Here is the input.
Amino acid sequence: MLLDRNSARGPWVALMSAGLCAALMLAPMAAHAEGFLRAKGRQIVDEQDRPVILRGVGLGGWMLQEGYMLGLSSPGMQHTIRRRIVELIGEQDTQAFYQAWLDNYVTKDDIDVLAAWGFNSVRLPMHYELYTLPVSKEPVPGQQTWLEDGFRRTDELIAWAKANDLYVILDLHAAPGGQGNDLNISDRDPSTPSLWDDAANRDKMVALWSKLAQRYRDEPAVGGYDIINEPNWGFASAQDKNGCKETGNAPLRELLVRTTAAIREVDKRHIVIIEGNCWGNNYHGVLDTGPWDDNLVVSFHKYWNGTSRDSIKDQLALRERWNIPLWLGETGENSNDWFARTVETMEGEGIGWANWPVKKLRYNNPLQVIANPGYERVLAYWEGKGPKPTRAQAREALLTLASHDIHLRNNARHPDVADAWLRAPRDDRSLAFKPNRIARGGGEVAAVDFDLGRNGVAYFDRTASNESGKPSTGWNPSQFYRNDGVDIVRDAGGLRVAAMQDGEWLKYTIDVEAGGAYTLSVRGKSGVTKAKVNGGILASVRVNEAQAVSLQHGRNSLVIEAVSGEPDLSTLSLRPASAGER
Here is the structure.
């Protein structure tokens, strides 16, 4: 479910300046782009041989759309999305839509903000059709027609990154023909030959990387070449659609080796990043005889599983065996607590990472696109839940989405998500989500404005993340406001924390103008809670009942714990106690 425009945008400006900026002041300095990166033993290092931890963001949704990022359930390939748009507004306006989309989805403003938050790299998911024609459209079979638009946009991104001391990882996300049976990822059309079915598609891919390497061989801000994103193909068995049981992977290895050789003909310096089968994780056969280049990095992707060191034991074994660096090239789509624990494990092993994606029409990323109401009606039609809009209505909605809604200035910014990637993994303290100030006359704190931090640090919830192996939003089913493992709902009365289980708790950092005796009322619909004020535990009381507390001038810590009755909380009210209440 999407937030509406008015409820989402305003509060985030204050939140970003208060919560996130305070958080990042305490975060370690990130490594900045200083010369060419290279593989040295088990580490990625810069030109001064200093280890570099890539803390990155994947720019997913920009050059390559996936349906879920636009709120679509299925089908989610970009070419099918484009056909749907043509059906509503015609070819000419569809071209205008995609031009505006590419112009506005990622701009220098986005890169400036990412750098200011503390990220030191971006991963660019490239669609090959922005750089060259499909094989079927080449005027001369076997020759390559180059398109300037993709290269120009890549040049611009690199310039924006250089202005911010960021590295850019070039990632071929949609290879000619498509590299897997997960169709959305690579915009694959299953009615045409895949990358693996047609040698001409593979020739085009190799030629594209040779062209990219020739163009960027002298550019140190390019951190590396991620040459095929998430291959997922059953070479030995059609039943193994995504190649997770594949033991040979000979065609994949052959193409990786061939592409590396083509890059090395023109570029000896840049890192080449390789990904295994099964969405980048099956390296059987790919590295059985070892690396074929002395400047390789092994990438893997991680979603919806455990966060301990044991969860990456296979990747660590590859590193140990071949003395080669690892990079978690794509991860995310989970809760803040999962993000923080994953980063803690990765960086503890000296492994960099890239969050996926930077923005979409959902809430668990640093930025969120807030769609105009007209687009929500278009989406309802596409999903079979509403009438077909008129052409004029659809045109206004879609062009507003592409020219206005996706631009940074109109995005909701999620400080809790950025904090989970950049501070919380290295800091066991919680920080205020926003300024919770109690004036001399008293004040209120919204229950949903509990602290920033991991589960067990800023709050405790029994369902703090999804590690079941299947994508879900179980940590916050309503998808409102925050991405922590706390159930948040919204009704006519506003946002509230709902259905707290016994033993779950929320921590609040509050700033009190005048110390002294106060009465605390935890307001809401139901349940029994107990409070802990600056470490002191108070008696349990029913929601909406008042009790006496003592607060100090300045910073105070307040913890509210569920005792029984599944407390449903809206606000915490603090009022100076009268003489009879002291």
User: Anything to note?
Assistant: The CA atoms of residues 194 and 571 lie 56 Å apart.
